[in-house]
Amino acid sequence: MFDFPLFSQSLSRRDLCKVALGGTLSFMLPGFDLQAAQKRGPERRKSVITLWMGGGPSQLETWDPHPGTQIGGPGKAISTVVPGLQISDMYPLLAEQLGGMSVIRSMVSKEGDHERGTKYLKTGYRPEPTTVYPALGAIITHEAPNKGLEIPQHISMGNTQFPARGGYLGAHLDAFRVPDPGKNIGNMRSGVGDPRQERRLENLDVVSQAFRRGRTIQTKKTLHQSTIDRALTMMSSEQLQAFEIEKEPAAVRAAYGDSPFGRGCLVARRLVEQGVHAIEVNLNGWDSHANNYTGHQTQSKILDPAFATLLKELKERDLLDSTIVLCIGEFGRTPKINPLDGRDHWPSGFSCIVGGGGLKGDLIIGETDPTGKEKDPTEPVRIQDLYATILQKLQIDFTKELISPIGRPLALSDGSPIAKLV
Amino acid sequence: MPASARNWILACLPAGVVALVISLVAWASSSPLKKTEPIPVLQNEDSLTRTVDQVDQFFTQEWQERELVPAAEADELTQMRRLSLALHGTIPSLEEIREFQTMSGDDRLERWTLKLLDDRRFADYFSERFTRAFVGVAQGQFIVFRRDRFKAWLSEQIQANTPYDELVRKLIAGEGLWTGDPETNFITAAVADGNLDRNKLTGSTVRAFLGQRIDCAQCHDHPFDHWKQTDFEGLTAFYGQVEVQVLGVRQNNKLKYEVEDRNTLETRTVAPQVPFLNECLPEEGTLRERLATWVTHPDNRRFERASANRIWGLLFGVPYIDPVDDLPAPTDLTQEAPKLLDILGQDFRENGYDIKRLIQIIVASKPFQRSSSTDMVDAEEIQRATRAWALFPLVRLRPEQIIGSMLQSSSLKTIDQNSNLFMRARRFFSEIDFVREYGDLGSDELNDFPGTIPQALLRMNGQFARDNGSASPFNSVGRITSLDISNEKRIETCFLVCLSRPPTAEELTHFLKQYESASNQKQREKITEDLFWALYNSPEFSWNH
């Protein structure tokens, strides 16, 4: 199942030690790890980290503030290292780290419901009852599998109601879920010592053999054995250490923040180093129908340190060029503040941050109306266009058509890349 | 009161409280129902047998024409396991296996089927399956949608054996509050973002009850079927006068169904119309009542065919025609011989749309009784036989079936409504947790997916598997270890409990060796734990076969 690494850029254990060592040192002495950078080179396979903001964050309290206007509410803005880019003042750490990243302020969707919106935003296709579309991570895993990997390539961290699915590409491409990243990898460790585990596996062989009699071909097709083998490989894999953050310096862990999301971002960085190409870190709690402003203050205290440290570390380790980072939720929030001091669902003209992985950076795309009267932003960007952009940067032919189970040819994405970004 | 009497009372008080608590717990954990149902006696049902013969004949001819030799008949315990998994979502308990083994007569499987159908577990398990087909698994819009109430209502209907056509009419035309009249949750499930999504209602009505996918026609004419966008709009117009407001689901005759033309962007009113069988549409009644009558009209053969296909799917794990909701149009029976769905559908219609009867017919006919093992070695040949139902298909169990089976095998007694509160609560909560972690199949549960790594990890190392597989005085692992029986009997019991079959000679030898090397109780316990672990993780445990 696990062939010798097919890709020259796959890391050996020794390389990993070097990366880990270089990485650790680089954190203390920025700019020291030139050699590691040379080693990885520009041909490194690209990864995508999606920071998923479940519930739909308000663009006005994040990346598209309109301070001093009626729609801006009590929010203030601060300047960032990107010339001309102002974001909410709730993100001071991030403001320092946004260099090379871009903000799109004109995302437009047609789905104002959490479930439908999430499905659209995670797959690039509007949901429909008869087809389950694969999530971005599943597409990447399907089109560009990393054969040298002993752990899953598509990973979702943190709790989420709508995890990234393999859809019509198959349940084996569902995101591997880690509900409490950095803390508990429970199911990945056997509960008994080696000699007993061996006896158990021997027993399993004996029992399976009886069943296989007369069903050799059918049982092979169930992939039962191969799934168990893959799980066992994973259980004994050194790569599993990517999930363990105890050995990270205390200062690093503290910088990310001791929240499931902060730990998830740290694990995400470690997974990228391990060659995992599709990672999702979930942060729920953005559904601010009431007390929008204070809600965003609470959320920003989790998001700001984690996101900022992630970008900082990726840059220091020379990983940002090979890692696309996308921070987005299912929709934005109304310019109008409701009587509960909240904002309601707003799928038109919401914001995201995207960059790295060779995308053009330091850009501000689209503009929303500061009076809130115009519903549509300038330079509208459709969800599928964002995915077409990302897939193109990953050198995946997004126009490629796959045949869905009902026999309908479907392109990986039916969008077109955003010209400014590629 | 004299001091001595007061002291006496004080001294007795704690004991009194303890006694009260014990009796309360005992009362609460005892079942309100009577202990075991007597095994039903089979009525000599000629018409049912006739339909079974007709189905068997259909397949015999099919197999002959395709030059297929059907697999041998599966042994009774295997069939019993299939029945329990299909009807109760668990494997049979040791208690049930023993009970079955004491029964005599050639018709004992048929009688056993009736017993399973009468058991409340059947209604509870099938109501979840129907709920998925009708409203999916989403929790829907908070407040106006109560999935739990809907499921409980369906369970009541199934238990009472409400005719299926009547049940469907209630779903489509129901009125009232989603709490008091839970059938209306079929309508409110389509509320999203504060609005009733009528297109969604049309799509699910046609998919769930008529076995047709016309969702594509919502935006354009169907690419390769004959559905037109106007068909979709016309059907949706039947939902045009339904309103969801504080008083629940209501009819509002003033409402007009309007759509925005995608080309001209002008709004136009759409009149309700059906895409076929116009003569089955009644003149009288509200729009939804008329639609409900049309959908379930005896002449609307799509209804009975779709129902038969879905029930077949729930029993085998795969529908007769896959996908379950995309059936070919019915053929003209005056020109062509009836196919399987026509035979089953006709019996269903002529016998009051009786779900239990339909199930009895399917499980009594040849395909359900075929073995899943064969002498064939050619992959293509095997696939051909499986597709023609000459070989029982291997189908992955649903997460609920896996957890249900793991729980059942951890207890030697049957876990049902007669079990104590603790056992039932454990089953309830374990199921929710496990299904969430295992990955719910949602409404795609009749699709064929292979297992995943996280699932294998959960079965091998998960907390639930650990608890279940570690010996305790209360679970089978502990009980089987400590029972004063021979090692052979011990191994046999483990196999019966987990796989519903006795061990093979090789298996017996392998595990006997292990037990014989054990010198004390502790070691024996570990051997039983490791044996259970192997059984839980074997393909035989997590696949229907």
* Quaternary structure state of the chains depicted: heterodimer
Pair with the most extensive interface?
Answer: A-B, 54 and 64 residues
Mind summarizing the main beta sheet of chain B?
A: 2 strands, antiparallel
Note poorly predicted spans of chain B.
29-34
Helices of chain B, by number, come to 26
Can you tell me the residue ranges of chain A where pLDDT is under 50 for at least 5 consecutive residues? 1-40
* Biggest sheet architecture of chain A: 9 strands, mixed
Count the E strands of chain A: 15
| DSSP summary: helix tally of chain A | 12
- Strand percentage of chain B lies at under 5%
Radius of gyration of chain A: 22 Å
- Gyration radius of chain B (Cα, Å) is 27 Å
First-residue to last-residue Cα separation of chain A: 36 Å
Percent of residues of chain A in helical segments? 25-40%
Let me know the average pLDDT of chain A: 88
Strand percentage of chain A? 5-15%
Topology as H/E string of chain A?
HHEEEHEHHEEHHHHHEHEEEEEEHEE
Main β-sheet, spatial strand arrangement of chain B = 1-2
Task: Explain the overall architecture.
The complex is a heterodimer of chains A (422) and B (545). Chain A is an alpha/beta fold. Helices cover 34% and strands 15% of the residues of chain A. Chain A starts with 12 loop residues before the first helix and ends in an 11-residue tail after the last strand. The longest helix of chain A has 25 residues, at 292-316. Chain A is built from 12 helices and 15 strands. In chain A, helix 9 (250-256) packs across helix 10 (260-274) and helix 10 (260-274) runs parallel beside helix 11. Residues 1-40 of chain A have low confidence and may be disordered. In chain A, strands 1, 4, 5, 6, 7, 8, 11, 12 and 13 form a 9-stranded mixed beta sheet that branches. In chain A, strand 14 and strand 15 (409-411) form a beta hairpin. With 545 residues, chain B is mainly α. Chain B has helices at residues 3-29, 46-65, 76-88, 94-102, 108-118, 120-135, 147-159, 164-173, 185-188, 198-210, 229-236, 287-295, 301-316, 340-350, 355-364, 366-369, 379-387, 399-409, 421-438, 453-461, 463-469, 476-482, 487-499, 505-517, 521-537, 539-542; strands at 191-192, 195-196, 242-245, 248-251, 258-260, 267-269, 395-396, 543-544. In chain B, a hairpin with a 2-residue loop joins strand 1 and strand 2 (195-196). In chain B, helix 5 packs antiparallel against helix 15 (355-364). The interface between A and B is large, with 54 and 64 residues.
